[in-house]
Write a structure and sequence with these properties.
The structure is a homodimer. The first copy, chain A, contains 15 helices and twelve strands. The first copy, chain A, is an alpha/beta fold and about 425 residues long. Chain A folds into two domains: about 110 residues, Nonspecific Lipid-transfer Protein, Chain A, CATH 3.30.1050; about 280 residues, Rossmann fold. In chain A, the strands form two sheets. Chain A has a seven-stranded mixed beta sheet with strand order 8-7-6-9-10-12-11, sandwiched between helices. Chain A starts with about 25 loop residues before the first strand and ends in a 20-residue tail after the last strand. The relative contact order of chain A is 0.11. At the A-B interface, helix 13 and strand 11 of A face helix 13 and strand 11 of B. Strand 11 of chain A pairs antiparallel with strand 11 of chain B.
């Protein structure tokens, strides 16, 4: 993978062989540079990354040979990266104040691994809380947050999503499947996990561009009401419903999920939970309960984490305002108050890494177009978001959970999970 | 299903047709009896059960025709059942102070359903807390608790378990599978979920009579250290290892799981978590982490619940001292502090109902033998425990969770779950 910003990078003037026993070695004014290097590696851990400062000073890891180089163009950026590496790197990368020579995804992977389970710093915790507050997913806050991301324009997403515009983790029956096959397989997998029967009613909370709602109606004969507050997405979805002759069976409603009424057999939400305040998960559970009661069932599909903690601050600041990746413990706050029985949890993390690899390839192939549409800052910021997400799913700082659940009065239909895998190739 | 205690039951003297609009109707001294009936149905909800008091007064549900009759032989038992239905019924059933005419499992199911999600009463909450305290699973407490249940004598368990003595939920590829087939299928299913490879090391926390440890070593070529504090079970397991020529690959250690050392690839615990204090789940997570670190993986299999709450007090008092059925939220307290990634959660609840049906059939077939071994009180108490467990898994007051997890530095081997279901009939 070639970084499109690479042509801007300054070549390092010197190459040094790191001395043993040092955290990092450097050239230039020896003492200060050594200290700077140590501080940087203290902040990001012993990652195999070489840093080149102002085109002249090189700071290299000692423990391992570097897999890539980060060029930092000014001292201020370096100092910020020491204090708050994730946020400062994101900002500097988007601004063009750092450049990367090497495979960005692999380098981010290495940093995520080396940062490991280090406790969050106090400054990060404080700014994270502040961000939670000003990006709060109130009825109004959600509209603004969703508008900022999903209303960027359908033409932008068409550049790198599949034609059905499925903007969530696909399901690759094999890693060689195409993105189109894998997205369709995902839609079908969800329908089978939900054991949909013709004539049933489904409500979808956060329907994106409508692919799942349309698929369910077309292939499983159910009636769907799909909620979404992204105006652009709703317009696209309604057009698709008309074109495919499904308008009588799928209703796309431009409204908040909190206004979902009662009276459905099944509740489904794919990639929407990340936009719900985790302190309000019990309320979300009440919405599910109002929708499907104790006899219904549902499926939640979301980017999660293996522990409870705030989502990347840079991603929230620049890409997904108000977003949160819940742990399973948090997700249980949705389901347990009403005694919903968890039937199945599947972690599809490798599938999201693969999905994002497809997206990033397509995105890079369209990078000139993206620059034309939104400028170079935007092109770089979104590239970092996609690359960082791949790294997150590969290393496990991010997980992808699919939870199937049933109301306390519903008897499960399927005896084992074997039927899910009976249809080869689907 | 015929209740073996039935022959003691007094026939009701009168049959009445319930009057409409009443919660319950009764014959006898009309006012008091009506009040008694109302109180009883208030305590258990509108269950379709007929009660016959002192062989003469009948209290019937009005909303539905009864599916069975409970004969209550004295006023004191009736009053206790009003105040604390679950505990009082358990005690009275074991004592022979009530008798049941009808299918005990179905009747218990009906009561569990009618009691629904009613909040726990204050008295129950207090006595439950008290019980948590005096049955605490300290190192010493666990020995006493485990001894009381698992050291009843292997001859007793042989009466109703399969020959391999697997005393946990089986896996029925189809509901028609035999118990023997289903237990073997479960052992294999766990090995495949863990993706065991020849030469790896496994530690088992709470190994019962050793069936899984032996199966893993024999069929997957792994080395197993299996911990258990039940003396009777360890003796049985060691004998089986010798007989099957597996002593060099399986070591049965009579020690507490808290003393599991480091240095394993895989951690497995089947039906043991129910004996761990949920307030100590983080410590349990540390034991797992010591055993397999960040690169290992594991599987937890346990009787759980769809919400967090104490286990049946009667079961704890008479059958399983110190037992607790954790919710998934509680279970996450084991895995999340060390960032273990949940890969898979499967709810095998219908399989445990089926397993228990097999056990109860065999138990009932051996009831004379059980009476001979431990007396009629014991025979009735254990019958209620088995029947109540079937009802619990059928209605969903109990769940059976299998959680597969991986350390934060382990990459998962399997791309999808399809290989788990590729070998038909296993």
């Amino acid at each position: 993978m070639i970084d499109p910003a690479l042509h801007l990078a300054t070549k390092p003037t010197d190459m040094i062989i790191p001395a043993k026993g040092q955290t990092a070695s450097s050239v230039g004014s020896p003492r200060i540079e050594k200290w700077l290097g140590e501080q940087l590696f203290k902040a990001i851990g012993p990652a195999p990354i070489r840093f080149v400062l102002r085109g002249e000073t090189e700071i290299s890891p000692t423990a391992s040979s570097p897999i890539g180089t980060v060029f930092i163009h000014d001292n201020q950026t370096l100092v910020k990266m020491m204090a708050d590496p994730e946020m400062a790197f994101g900002e500097a990368y988007a601004d063009g104040r750092v450049h990367v020579n090497g495979d960005l995804v692999r380098m981010l992977e290495a940093v995520y691994q080396s940062m490991g389970a280090a406790p969050e710093r106090r400054y990060a915790r404080l700014t994270s809380k502040w961000m939670n507050w000003w990006q709060a997913n109130t009825l109004r806050g959600s509209r603004s947050n969703v508008h900022r991301h999903y209303d960027l324009g359908n033409d932008f997403y068409k550049l790198w999503l599949d034609p059905q515009m499925v903007y969530t983790c696909a399901y690759f029956a094999s890693p060689q499947a195409t993105l189109e096959e894998a997205q369709e397989a995902k839609l079908d997998y969800i329908c089978r996990k939900l054991e949909l029967r013709s004539g049933e009613t489904v409500v979808e909370a956060g329907c994106g561009w409508g692919a799942l709602a349309l698929y369910m109606a077309q292939h499983y004969g159910v009636k769907v009401k799909a909620f979404n507050i992204s105006h652009e997405q709703i317009l696209f979805a309604r057009r698709a419903a008309t074109e495919r002759g499904l308008s009588d069976r799928v209703e796309f409603i431009e409204d908040d999920y909190r206004n979902i009424p009662e009276g459905f057999d099944t509740f489904v939400s794919i990639g929407m939970l990340e936009h719900v305040d985790p302190r309000r998960f019990a309320d979300f559970g009440e919405i599910i309960h109002r929708a499907v009661g104790d006899t219904g069932r549902g499926l939640l599909h979301f980017v999660g984490r293996s522990h409870t903690g705030d989502f990347s601050r840079w991603i929230r600041k620049r890409i997904f305002p108000g977003a949160h990746a819940p742990s399973l413990a948090e997700a249980m706050n949705i389901l347990q108050p009403r005694h919903y029985a968890v039937l199945d949890v599947e972690n599809l993390r490798p599938h999201y890494a693969r999905t994002l690899e497809h997206w990033l390839d397509r995105y890079d192939a369209s990078s000139a177009k993206v620059v034309e549409m939104y400028g170079p800052w935007f092109q770089r910021a979104w590239r970092l978001y996609l690359a960082g997400s791949i790294a997150g799913f590969r290393t496990g700082t991010l997980q992808l959970f699919q939870i199937t659940f049933a109301g306390s009065k519903r008897q499960t239909a399927s005896w084992t999970r074997a039927p899910l895998y009976a249809q080869a190739g689907r």
